[in-house]
Design brief:
This protein is α+β, with helices and mostly antiparallel strands and 218 residues long. It contains six helices and seven strands. Strand 3, helix 5 and strand 4 form a beta-alpha-beta unit. This is DUF2726 domain-containing protein.
Length: 218
């Protein structure tokens, strides 16, 4: 009697597995797909190629990276955690530059598509600024252009990634015309960041952001 019961249990389990397998296959047969095409449009691809050239072997460039793959909420309560996680689950970074060994994100880059501001765009910008500031990830903004100067991108990244050496350049003070030198902030909000300062200090106190890359005038 016991052997009959075991056989029945085995047959039921076998029938259940087979039925579940074939039903799943039938469901998949009802869904057909096609490729959407390139992950990036032509404007994004141009920036991506310039970014790769600027980074070189000192980082890995990834595009369209979901925020939830990079960030996690600090909330300890489950409800708060899910609310915070849902807030970032449907958004992404346009580009990130990662450590080449660990793929840890070092810099996030938001590429402005040039479209007019609307509520969705403003909300996205606010979210990116908030999460990056909270997590300590540098966020760089860039505008879509027809072409990009790799040397400027490299200088922008060099302010955040020590391994990237910026191209040597000579800047002149816009106040007195003297050559400018690069220094590193020793205190304040931008501690550790590079900046240009007039070589005639303290007579001339003009300074300039090291990260200025997309100057229309140039």
């Amino acid at each position: 009697m016991e052997s009959v019961f075991i056989i029945v249990v085995i047959l039921v389990a076998f029938f259940f597995v087979i039925q579940k397998r074939y039903l799943r296959q039938d469901e998949l047969k009802d869904s057909a797909y096609k490729k959407k095409g390139a992950l990036l449009n032509s404007q994004e691809t141009a920036f991506y190629n310039a970014l790769i050239s600027a980074v070189g072997q000192h980082g890995v460039v990834l595009a369209k990276v979901n925020l939830a793959n990079v960030l996690t909420p600090l909330a300890t309560e489950k409800k708060q955690w899910f609310i915070a996680n849902n807030r970032i689950a449907k958004s992404y970074f346009d580009f990130v530059v990662c450590d080449p060994r660990t793929l840890e994100v070092r810099v996030a880059i938001e590429l402005d598509n040039g479209k007019e501001l609307n509520k969705g765009k403003v909300d996205r910008q606010k979210l990116l600024i908030h999460v990056c500031k909270s997590a300590g990830i540098p966020l760089i903004g860039a505008s879509i252009k027809h072409s990009y100067q790799v040397s400027r991108l490299r200088r922008l990244l060099a302010a955040h990634i020590d391994l990237i050496e910026s191209d040597k350049e000579v800047r002149f003070c816009k106040r007195c015309g003297s050559p400018m030198t690069v220094k590193i902030a020793s205190q304040g909000e931008h501690k550790g960041r590079r900046f240009f300062t007039c070589s005639r200090q303290p007579q001339c106190t003009y300074t300039e952001n090291y990260n200025v890359v997309f100057d229309e005038a140039e």
